[in-house]
Amino acid sequence: MLASPCLLWLLAMTSLVPRAQPLAPQDFDEEEEDETEPPAVPCDYDRCRHLQVPCRELQRASPAACLCPGLSSPAQPPDPPRLGEVRVVAEEGCAVVHWCAPFSPVHHYWLLLWDGSGAPQKGPPLNATFRRAELKGLKPGGTYVVCVVAANEAGESHVPGAGGEGPDGADVLAFGPCSRLSVPPSPLTLVHAAVGVGTALALLSCSALVWHFCLRERWGCPRRAAARAAGAL
Ligand SMILES: *[C@@H]1O[C@H](CO)[C@@H](O)[C@H](O)[C@H]1NC(C)=O
Questions:
Q1: Assessment of whether the complete model's pTM goes beyond 0.85
Q2: Taking burial as the number of CB atoms within 10 A of a residue's CB, which of 5, 35, 112, 170 is the most buried?
Q3: d(CA 8, CA 12)
């Protein structure tokens, strides 16, 4: 009794799913219909792994058939990559940026860096295997916005707020191709700051002591003051 509604539901799902999700891995669905072929496994492809060979090339090189995620059309510019972790090395004034490939054919990537003075600096082109790049020459205590751009023959991926002052707003920066990065002040600056604070504290305690003894001199110990006055005579 239960079998027929389940079967109907399954049939409905298998016919609906590919149409409802055009970007879903299409190759995965074909396997369910054709039971005679051996079940194919996903290719050893990670879109966030650095120096990752494109999945289509893995497929061509692989002796056994494997499956790739579906991609957008090569006739369209790529979707924006997703920027992940940004690790700042303050002492060396550099940052390492990680990203994940979009589900689109990509020919190359580059980074854009805004330092708050208008136009962004454009990094060198990085081939399609790259998922990591280094930003150099960052100023200690500086705040920057970094974006990763993907390009193919049809154009380049969208950068939020490009052309103006750079991307802004927390919603734009979360899970997008951009991220804000702050370089902490260098250790030398911290040492200077510590020396400054130390000096200020020392001056403060000196003036407190002077103030304290002046007050004592005036109101606190009249006898000693009198004695000293007598001695001087
Ligand atoms: C991409 O760049 C890396 C590092 O420079 C290099 O090892 C690799 O051969 C390049 N791949 C292609 C397809 O050009």
A1: no
A2: 112
A3: 6
